[in-house]
Amino acid sequence: MEKTALFNYILGIADNNLILGQGLGELCGHGPNLETDIALTNIALDLFGQTRSYYQYAAKLSAIHKTEDDVAYLRKEREYKNVLLVEQPNTHFGYVIARQYLFDVFNYLFVEKLQHSKDETLSAIAKKAIKEVSYHKRFSGDWVKRLGDGTEESNQKMQEAIDGLWQYTNELFEMTEADEIALKAGIGVNLSELKEAYYKEVSEVLKEATLTIPENPYFQKGGKQGIHTEHMGYILADLQYMQRTYPNMTW
Amino acid sequence: MKKNWPLWEVFVRSKNGLEHRHFGSLHAADAEMALENARDVYTRRNEGVSIWVVESKYITASNPADNGELFEPAKDKVYRHPTFYNLPDEVKHM
């Protein structure tokens, strides 16, 4: 597979982890209680760990970006390929959980398939990540059920979050040009094939959580092409500040 | 939070063959959440192979005021401990 296409394909995976991890990182020290705070930060760290492996690989393929940090910190907003779902804000705990769960179910299905990639590096990263991703889904899924099937207030807030974020789910399965090329090369995952299993699993959990499955007339998309929502600029401002202000700084 | 979740005690078996040891405590709404929280708080760095959680209220503790009658009489009876045996180096975890 040609280098630029593979580079783009890797970013399509890794940017989701980076941006979602950054959103969770914002909650460090602000979780609803100590245990949940630690759990969310752990998930953020898992995601950063995975994304580092992807970026290290991407940096090897790129002529412009020399290190993983360049890839993570020195791109412009339009060059980030994450889906819109992961850049949605931490409006309240219900949103944090809904965003996490709606992503985790997809991510689990995706990483499961990526293990069989013909690209040895991607396959190795996926094999390492699958257990973490599986735990993320368990954690967020349990919380969806707890809040949905909890008190009247928690149910209403969880429903509000699911309703608000549902419009971003369909983009997860959109095949970009890089996805198509990677699929043909036996490296990539066929995202459209994951869709049925995804909505089936999510619907079952929502039902168990006594939540209503939203019926959206249309879905938002654009993140994969670099067209982001208004929240993305703020995330990148936080994320990139140090490298932009003190170029090449290290710990 | 007006009402705190109940407190749970966490016991972790660090490897097979060893007993579960008390690691600490945490808050959780129920047993399942207590297990998940224990995983996140205590066993994320490869510390264990098994976790027990028990709600703290089910633990009956001795009263420090009773320490005299409970523990003092044993102090001058060294022969109650198997300290006069030489342990072979191969025996670990005694």
Automatic annotation (TrEMBL), chain B:
Entry superkingdom: Bacteria
Pfam family, one: PaaB
Name used for this protein in its record: 1,2-phenylacetyl-CoA epoxidase subunit B
Native organism: Halomarinibacterium sedimenti
Gene: paaB
